[in-house]
Amino acid sequence: MLQICEVMAEPPLKKARMEAGNSENLLKDDQYNSSQDMFANSIEEEIDDNDWSGVPISTIPSLNNSFNLPSQYPAPHPGPSHTVCVQLPLSDGLPRPHPRILRDVWDAFHVRLPWARENLYPVEDKNVRGKKVLRSRWELIIESLTKDKISSSLDLEEAILTYNTRYRGKPDWNFSALHTIFTDEFEPEETEAFFDHTLPGMVDILISSPNILTSPLPLLSAGSAHSITISQQQVFVILVNAFFCTFPRRNAKAGGSEFSSYPGINFNTLYGTCFRRPEAHLEKLKCLLSYFHRVVNSCPMGLITYSRKVVPARGVPNWAGSSTIIPKLHLTSNGTIEVEGRGMLQADFANKFVGGGVLRSGLVQEEIRFTVCPELLASMLFTEVLGDREVLVVVGVEQFSKYEGYSDTFKFGGRFADTVELDSSGRKMTSVVAMDAIRFINGDDQFMMRNIDRELNKAFVAFQNRHVSNLQAIATGNWGCGAFGGDPMLKLLLQTMAAAEAGRDVVYFTFGDSTLVKDGGEMYNFLVREDVTVGELYMVIRGFGKSGRHLEGKELFNWIYQQVGSSRVEQVDLKDAYEVDTDSDQEISSENKEDEKVSTLINDDPDLPSTELTNSDKWLNDQMDDVEKFPVADSSVGEVKNGGFFAALDKMEKGELETKDTENICPIEASLGLANEASKSIDMKASSAVEKKKEKSEVVIPKNQPKLTDFFPTK
Question: Is 367 a catalytic residue?
Fold first, then answer.
């Protein structure tokens, strides 16, 4: 079996094992050519004229065409605002860790890593019956994963629960989906090969974690503009530890726990049964298992930079006074952001908790991107919930899986060979920006000016790049639509306006919506023909919100056609009226001033009746010119003090004690609409119009679809 594992390429087709032996090679060739030939011809040459509008895509600047754009991001350079975890300059082979010797930090400003000395756990005292003592949790983890051979998912579950004993029997620690994929989905030899080869390789990497990731990882906390550059091998260390659920203090759900404003990172929530979309959930697991198998066998040697961008209030444009013209716009109903948007800045339609529901039942745009590009998952370890003028930019991420479908129809399509070139710093020239939209319960609210401004500012922060002047285009689409209730026609205009101010052109993927391609193209041609500026369009949109018309995209477009000419004649009057109305419309009474400071944790909570609290990051304040790195405190070696076992445990596992059902709902689950998922009380009817449209248009995978199409060779 070991010999078979060493030559793993593509998995068998279970119902077609006796087909011609060349089928495997044909499948492999198809997979590898998929990315190599992606841009052999421009999109307009490959699709029907009715499938795109605006300008030809060949006129849009990207890193793949003849525009000869400069490198879009600076090389990693260690400093107060940039943590670099590898030795520079890079040498041949895997990047060497920096510092050379582990620097152990355990404080509120850094990720609490599993191998820290202060990471302790209660265990039974072997010498005194009934007595518990604190032991190194890292030693317990290593012992649990190496003491006995792990031959099945049941063994794996028991090993993980050995150092997570307090969660045994809890809903979020149900391993039923993991059992299903190894017993019902995989062939016996596939399961055997995973536990004989892939899993032991993952355990070896886990044991070596302190020697590979030697630098403390700062938390990318709210208000802090900071970057982290790590190697792909170090990212693998993070994800292996997430797979084995080793990260301490990250399992708390109550709103007041230490990391309640951060996404989850341990994979335990991924292992349970998904009642919303059980089959697609198993396909998600296949993608991640394929990643682990591939990197165990051949670890990539590049770097990845994760950057939290923060812009103060006075750093955003004066939208009403903007004289910037509309940028180039290409709309297409074909293709996806991550494939046809290659060479462009690629939008991730993020939840404010980056990653959204990827470690739960989520499987829409952001979750799919994190699933096929698992290195994005590492950002969930250190990125705090995003504020109104904050985004996360990831440079160098690699795609590892192909896929088909969307949401309930999602299917793992096999291994993906990412042929994107490296920049001079060893990073893939792929950049992804996580930008979260407001969740609207009432669709009319999105036309309120405070929400228009918020979305414009968020998109501007996402698209802005002060490092270079010649920018690649932004590849985006129906941001914040579907489940978040946004109107695609409005979001098209807002993103185009933000891109104009940021100096970028736009490629807009409508995901099969040919009507938006037609209507959006006509609107774009009109705006260009009439020389409409961003400021003029802003004022017209503002007027629409007060027009008394039905507040939806088609009416907005009709309003723009009618008002553009007259708005110029009355431009001065409109601006004066805007200043007066802004003061009166958004005046806040003294009793509600404190509410404006409430965290964005509640901004898009689906249980809230409105979205009025969109300026929740005002505490960043206007006088902030440059956000500096927070001071690093000394390690809290003495956090666990005398005072009894339970007192010490409370301090050690802050926020992780068992909670009653009557306590606060986890804000992460609330933001995802998943608060009741563990109890199966899921609203099965809550699907977006966009999701339905995508599902209808997806190609049906043949019945002989392999269980895991890139894991094991055909006998």
Answer: yes
